[in-house]
Amino acid sequence: xxxxMVDDRFLAAVRPEERAAYEKRWRAIVxxxxxxxWRALRRLGVLEADLADAAQQVFLVMxxxxxxxxxxxxxxxxFQTALRVASDQRRSRTRRREVPDDLLxxxxxxxxxxxxxxxxxxxxxxLDRILDLMPxxxxxxxxxxxxxxxxxxQIAELMSTPPGTVASRLRRARAAFGEHxxxxxxxxxxxx
Amino acid sequence: xxxxxxxxxATAEELARSLIASARLDAESAPEQVRHEILAAFxxxxxxxxxxxxxxxxWGALRRLGLVKWIAATALVGAxxxxxxxxxxxxxxxxxxxxxxREPEQPIAHxxxxxxxxxxxxxxxxxxxxxxxxxxxxxxVTVTAPHHRVASKAAEQSNFSETSxxxxxxAALDRARTVLAGxxxxxxxxxxxxxxxxxxxxxxxxxxxxxxxxALSQSGQRGAARDLAARFLARHPKSLHAAQLRAxxxx
Lengths: 192, 251
Known about the structure:
By secondary structure, chain A is mainly α. Chain A has 8 helices and no strands. The radius of gyration of chain A is 19 Å and the shape is globular. Chain B is elongated and about 70 Å long. Classes of the chains: A mainly alpha, B mainly alpha.
């Protein structure tokens, strides 16, 4: 469909008197969503050292497609792009090295920062290790539900996925998470 | 490694809760620098056209050069950014493959202010392939039919007449940087002279100045390097190169 509304808006956007509005929209989008995307990328497994690049990459896609993205769909567009960026990174990372099975080992980039509670930091590192073991589509649903505390309907919208699919993924994600945590718990008990 | 204030969770369920809680505590925001870079990215994309392999390649080059940060540090978002939208009309955007169509070089507006520069820290900078990322499975994205070109009209309205191509500028500086990194400062200086002749009003001139300082320094012309560094710092005290340059000025 030729979607004249989007077209019109796009054409309007390049008229000089409309450029300011176009840029204003961009600034509003970045300011509203950058923190969410930052957190999402992190919990989707992007390494700390790569976060800035990944976030830029996500928003660059947005910048180039701005005229195609409906108002109100920005967050969804950004999240799905973030999901793809995180998946690509993960693929190239697993190509480079095997993910060790030892849940107690901490990732090199998850060493405690100076001003952060060591305990919290360690737990987060373990969480990330467990999430690393989950397939991306389960991980995404799990993170949005359990950490971002979104509703099933919000997740469905964000991922452009039917609610039923979200529900079944979430069930599987919780089961997988539970298994990994049980294993970690056992490892920690033995290490004590 | 666990402390007595935080004993090990007694059950796996407790452990699961504590792991999730640790992430909820991590409600951090994106760093300001990242926010600025992202805001600036739009002006670059706009300036380069919103589709096109060349835009993508140039963005990659910008990132390699560390110029994304530099652009973020300038007022480009306001100055060139606004006029850059005039080139958005070039976007074909008709299909998911729009991003791969070859676009002609896009002009970019000059920033009136001599901008600040940044160090070349972005060594990796994987090239971006946005069209693929954006469109493959995105039902939230509306894909338009091919639309009319409004190029000529918009081009008339924008006064890019005497502007240079950012891509060409980037390429020229990239060459100089490569030569310099290869240990040939004399050749780098020649390339920088060439750059400055070709782009007397180039938007990347501060970056060129910074490269010149490095090249002078490398070729043993410490005095000239320090003079230029002092002038650079006077003009761009907040440059992200500043720390390095101040170090150069130390006795």
